[in-house]
Amino acid sequence: MNTSKTKIFFFGGKGGVGKTTCSAAIAVKLASNGIKTLHITSDPAPSLSDIYCTKIGGTLTSIIPGLHAMEITQEKVAGVWKEKFGPDFLHILSHILDVEGMLQEGRLDLLDYIGTAPSLREETLLDMIREMAGEGKYQRIIWDTAPAGETLKLLGMPKLMKQHLRAGTKVYEAVDRLAGAVSHRKTLANIMEEWVCRSEELARFLKEKTLFFIVANPEALVVNQAERILGFLRDSEFDLGGLIINRIAGTDGSGFLEEMRQKQEPYIQKLIALSGAMPVGKVPMRVEEIRGIAPLKDLGEKLLTDLGL
Q1: pTM over 0.70
Q2: Parallel, antiparallel or unpaired: strands 61-64 and 67-71
């Protein structure tokens, strides 16, 4: 697998399958191999601090030499949206409301409210990650995402936004003609066209710079969710890096584990079938939690080998 030009390793799957652990293991091992790595999470219930045994928040935190981690909170995304795109929204709303007549606090409250809209939040998140990749500070960005349903909405957002904005541009062109475009300010149609271009750029970024990894457990609901995610990724022609089957029961001779293994086996086989030509990483079930650098590095070594990274 040639990953020399890949900037983003995207880890997705159903909630609770071990995305954070597996992505952290790969991040630690990559950094240990001398590859400058950033590990980010956009999960609304982040667990990076627990995995790394280090307090991690919304700013870059050094984990080991060559590895930083950061949690991208919903508040952070809303703040970035308000700063970058808020003025354009106020300009659009000024054709409908007396925005200039509102108190400053009222304008800020209005932006806070609008910025919580899921489509705008997800579009802004993608834009933030694209900028991180474009800065060139890291050779790899490991992206631990939200549970599967939110992830699919996130990945589909550039296409949906583009379709919506293209239609909106025609409407706003008519509004501009009726209101009379002001020469020293951007027209509404121009603003909408800029957003269309941004959505197109985000779609290209996901296709060109992202390699997708799916994490799954050998359980019915998880396997069904993995099948839907893989179907979406393949239909959308995203690059697939591999499938990780996590928490596979061992065979120590005990009746309990043997029974669990037998129950898991058909799901393991289905996941392997779903993987197609993708490499498959297999992670055995463990009694102890995988937390801290040493066990993460051990797991990362296995996963890098299994996945051919």
Answers
A1: yes
A2: antiparallel
- Going by their DSSP bridges, the two strands 140-144 and 280-284 should be labelled as unpaired
The encoded tokens of residue 147 equal 């549970």
Task: Determine the length of the chain.
Answer: 309
- Label residues 237-276 b or e (16+ Cβ within 10 Å = b): ebbbbbbbbbbbbeeeeeeeeeebbeebeebbebbeebbe
167 residue type, one letter: A
Quick one: residue 298, left, alpha or beta (phi over 0 = left, psi -120 to 50 = alpha)? Answer: alpha
DSSP type of residue 238: P
| C-alpha span between 215 and 246 (Å, rounded) | 7
CA-nearest of 260, 308, 254, 266 to 284 is: 260
What is the spatial distance between Cα 141 and Cα 125, in angstroms, rounded to a whole number?
A: 14
Strand runs (DSSP E) across 126-190, as ranges? 140-144
First to last CA, the chain: 7
Tens digits of residue pLDDT in 70-109: 998 878 877 777 777 666 665 555 554 444 544 444 444 5
Sheet holding 280-284, edge to edge: 61-64, 67-71, 37-41, 140-144, 8-12, 210-216, 239-248, 280-284
Q: Which residues contact 250 (CB under 8 A, 6 or more apart)?
A: 257, 261, 284, 285
Strands (E) across 139-226 are located at 140-144, 210-216
Which pair of tokens denotes residue 153? 């909405």
